[in-house]
Specification:
extended, mainly alpha
């Protein structure tokens, strides 16, 4: 049986930036699980939480 498709898309205008503390904690988790520095940079960028990146 196929999974039901949801239509609960969120508009970009409805998204709120994460707090600095949340971004800091997320960076630590990503860094802990990344296999190397390049992967860490890529994941942080994809998540929008790279150091110096503002929301």
């Amino acid at each position: 049986m196929a999974a039901a498709k949801t239509t609960d898309d969120i508009a970009d205008d409805d998204l709120e930036p994460v707090t600095d503390e949340t971004a800091h904690q997320a960076r630590r988790v990503v860094a802990a699980y990344a296999t190397d520095a390049d992967e860490c940079r890529m994941l942080l960028s994809m998540l929008g939480i790279a150091p110096g990146e503002s929301a």
